[in-house]
Amino acid sequence: MKVRKLHDWDLDSSGARQLQYELASLIEVRALPSRISSVAGADVALEASTARAGAAIAVLSFPDLALRELVTAEGKVRFPYVPGLLTFREGPILIEALKKLSSRPDVILFDGQGIAHFRGMGIASHVGLFAGLPTVGCAKSPLLKPGREPGPKRGATSPIRREGHLVGVALRTRSNVRPVYVSPGHLADVSSSVRLVLDCCTRFRIPEPLRVAHRECGKALRRDKIS
Is residue 3 domain-resident? Predict the structure, then answer.
């Protein structure tokens, strides 16, 4: 899969934040495509002691969620952990994995934020610009917190706002289970992102494409340690 080059990664924290502000103007918020036949999940496993990372992208058919393609990449992490700058830590290895895909998925789900971010530029938005594809953030914890907890039933939501604008929701994907935090990345909006995440959650709290990617990026990291 072809991935555009937006910028280099050799920035310090101050330069990275400034770049996020600049890139945020490129994000397009609009409904996901009405016809979706494939959904990818993208995740990264990190080992702090060795500064190594393993990335995995799992492409599943939709709506039946059968695995179509799986790619991984391994490498060294070169950016420190800084809240709000996750893409500069994990983005390069994810982009290397994206380049290995034989076809372009219709949508990519990321274990991280989209526009529900301090500067409107979470990893789903940032990598979405590189990929030129619709992307959605589905995080296990929030950067911007909702005003309240969503109701206890599957499908319940609570809004997440930034400067008064709706940028995501806390979403209950299973009744009486902790919510996930969903926000549009690029070429997506809140309501269609929520519908897709719910459609990709079968028996578990986390969408199936992300569950597969999470399992496989851990395997990739272990293989990298052995080699």
Answer: no
Contact call for residues 80 and 68 (beta carbons, < 8 A): no
Residue 8 lies in a domain: no
* Number of structural domains found in the chain: 1
Longest dimension (CA), the chain: 49
pLDDT in tens, 4-31: 999 999 999 999 999 999 999 999 999 9
pLDDT value for 67 = 97
- Peptide linkage before 209 cis (omega within 30 of 0): no
CATH code for the domain of 74: 3.30.2170.10
CB 163 within 8 A of CB 120: no
Query: What whole-number distance in Å separates Cα of residue 166 and Cα of residue 162?
Result: 7
Alpha helices in 78-207 (DSSP H): 86-98, 123-131, 190-200
Sign of CA dihedral 209, 214, 220, 223: negative
Q: Which domain holds residue 78?
A: 13-226
pLDDT of residue 162: 96
pLDDT, tens digit, 9 for 90 and up, residues 114-172 = 999 999 999 999 999 999 999 999 999 999 999 899 999 999 999 999 999 999 999 99
* Cβ atoms < 10 Å from Cβ of 162: 17
Count of residues for the chain? 227
Q: Could you read off the pLDDT of 27-36 as tens digits, one per residue?
A: 999 999 999 9
Asked whether 65 and 202 are in contact (CB, 8 A), the reply is yes
The reply to whether 118 falls in a domain is: yes
Q: Is 7 contained in some domain?
A: no
